[in-house]
Amino acid sequence: MNSLMKVAVVIVVVLVALANSVFVISEFERGVKLRFGKLVDADLLPGIHVKLPLAEDVRIFDGRILTVDAQPASFFTIEKKRLIVDSYAKWRIQDVDTYYKATGGVESVAQNRLANRVNNGLRNQFGTRTLKEVVSGERELLMQNITEGLNETVLGSLGIEVVDVRVKRIDLPPEVSGQVYRRMTAERTEEATELRSTGKERAEKIRAAADRERTIELANAYRDAEQLRGDGDAEAASIYAQAFSQDKEFYAFMRSLNAYKSAFASKGDIMLLDPSSEFFRYLKKQGD
Q1: pTM of structure
Q2: Which CATH architecture has domain 66-171?
Q3: Alpha helix positions (H), 22-169
Q4: What span, in angstroms and rounded, lies between the C-alpha atoms of 212 and 215?
Q5: Residue 15, Cα to own-chain centre: how many angstroms?
Q6: pLDDT band at 16, cuts 50/70/90?
Q7: Backbone angles phi, psi at 93, to 5 degrees
Q8: Could you tell me the CA-to-CA distances from 139 to 167, 208, 236 in Å, in that order?
Q9: Which tens digits make up the pLDDT trace of 31-84?
Q10: Cα angle vertex 254, ends 248, 257, to 5°?
Q11: Rounded to whole angstroms, how far apart are CA atoms 109 and 105?
Q12: What sign results for the dihedral spanned by CA atoms 8, 10, 13, 15?
């Protein structure tokens, strides 16, 4: 029984030793091996590895692209205008040996040191540019210069590669933003007023031109109508004259009928005439 217990204990010890001796490095990780605290393997490749229990230790780091989100900082442009800049950087471990020696393998230490370097780079770049250039004109060039400048220093000092640096937001200080907003509002109001005045002026010109054209068209139409009416009246008079010239007595009779029709159109009309007057010429003949 005692021998079985000893064998079992030996098996357990062996299994524990094997469990503590074998470790795996994935393709997303980087690692180093330490022996009694001294670095013996500075860059473990992905795969299965073996270490000496108790004597050796392994430190594993994230080998993917990581993000450091720097705290918003205050920078001055070449015009001495203060801006509040919020930025971030993408980075990854490039030299595991240097990274471990510089940071002790602590990711937060690397993040803080890189954030300080990013802010220093932004401060230097903003200090050589105007407000317009950093806001819109040379944003891409500014980011490229900062990335290249960081890689010249952090690779050797921290063992990391800066993949990209980006500015999330650029704000004016609170004491300045109100003034800028009021100035922009005044400029937009002035521009809107000018556009309205220009529009009203053009509208008046268009309306005056339309009224003038309308008046001209009406005058031309009235002129043409009067001319046509005059020509028609002249032609009608000519026809009447030709017709009635063939029988003057009939023409005089028709004129008298029209006169009677006009004179007796209303029952309330009263006329005082001499019965022997020429007006009753055809009435007397009718009586005869």
Answers
A1: 0.54
A2: 2-Layer Sandwich (3.30)
A3: 96-103, 107-126, 131-132, 139-157
A4: 5
A5: 66
A6: low
A7: -75, 130
A8: 9, 51, 89
A9: 888 888 787 777 788 888 777 777 777 888 888 898 888 888 888 888 888 888
A10: 145
A11: 8
A12: negative
